[in-house]
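REQUEST
  id: r-88c1
  op: predict_structure
  target: Polysaccharide deacetylase family protein
  payload:
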Amino acid sequence: MKKKLLLVGSLTLLITLLFNVPRNYPSILPVFQLTEKPTVISKGTYGKTVTIDLTFGKDEIETLLKDLKAPYPHFFISTEWMERSEPIIKIMQEKHIPIGLLGKDGANYIEDPVLFQKEVDQFEKVMGEKPLWFRTKDYQFPIEVQEVAWQQEVNLLSSSKYWDVEIPKLTKGDVLSVPLHQDERVDIKQLTKLLGSETFLPIEQNIFGLKMNTKTFPE
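RESPONSE
  id: r-88c1
  status: 200
  body:
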């Protein structure tokens, strides 16, 4: 019997970080915290990344996931969508599709100082682990969010390009945001076409050249 394990090779990771992080970093960065201080990342270095902000949709999302092939786009999903989409999340987990936490507008975290923690706890309850990546819905990151995310070892990701009306032209290092909301939504067929048009990199690989490998071992 064989089982699949998603592994991040510690030795490989440490070696990669030594050669890819900026030279002014005083020490090796923690495995699950990719910045040395509260920072919002918006652009990479090594390629192009597609991220999808998901708060609404069911049938067409299942259709999108069915034919999706690695390397996958990175989904940012809201806690509300999580609560009503357990079967779809299961599909995403089985395919090892990367999932981050999509929060509310940045101002909400100033009004409610414990909101971030509530959302992280909900994410962990559903996913079985804390999110590695977080972004607010309006891409505004108050210092309060930056500091509490840093304490929780959650990385903050904005984007360098946003798919509004037309697909923006992407260059090396770009992080593209794709909205899938009820009131703002790209066409799924156009999104599928984009994802199949070239090879996009995972966030970590685009930023630092980190790679995550899925291996199969005999039991």
